[in-house]
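Deliverable D5.2: sample structural annotation.
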Amino acid sequence: MADERTRYFRRLDRLRRSARRWSVLAGGLGGATAVLTPYAGLGLPDAAWAAGAGGAVALTAWRWIDLRALAARPAPPPLDPAEAAARSRARLVAAVERLPVGPGVLAEVRRVRSRVALRGTSAAQPWARLDRASLTLAGMTGRLTGLAEPAVREAAAADRSLRDLADRVASVERALRLAPPDARPPLTEAHRALTGQLEAGVSAYERLVVAAAGYLAEDYRPDAADPAATRLTEATDLLHGVAAALAELRSGGAQVRPT
């Protein structure tokens, strides 16, 4: 979507082109009316020419009035380059999201960007563990139904919270590197507390993923033999029996054949 300044100049340009077109049309119709109008008076065809010329002149005047009114207004200020870049990125993201594979591509781009942003900080390793656990859980989400659905929702909320916490740890750590000596003790204590929260949260998330895998294993463990495997075994035994019967018939026929 164009900004206010761009829309202003586009509208101004449209009005200028429209005023010029109607000026040319009004001049042509007015000249034709003056040339074609007979001295003896106006007939019905001449009245049509005159009416067209009058209407064109009126519309031309309105267009020039609108153009002057718009030109008298001050143009909106240009966008800040940062804001313009943000709007461009938003338009690009919206365009990609409309593609069939767009959401997956954007999610992967965000993951890579987050991993690069945390590189070199103490939050990088917990974030990597969280990312692996999150991908593992995402592969099981479609089968975690019924009683496991609330746990899946809690895991999604915890994932967002932990990623935000990792960003905070990295921000405090970067600020700690720039802080003067007298301001470092409180930042060091805050960094230690946030790092402890992040480690504890990631460990809890990993335990949740392990529990989800155990739930799936128990949920899909049959109480008895698999019906499909049982039917295959029965069919195999049947084929073995048929083959043995055919072999016996073949051998019996060979014994009674006259020499």
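Annotation notes: The chain has eight helices and no strands. The mean pLDDT is 78.
The annotation will be released with the project's public dataset once the embargo ends.
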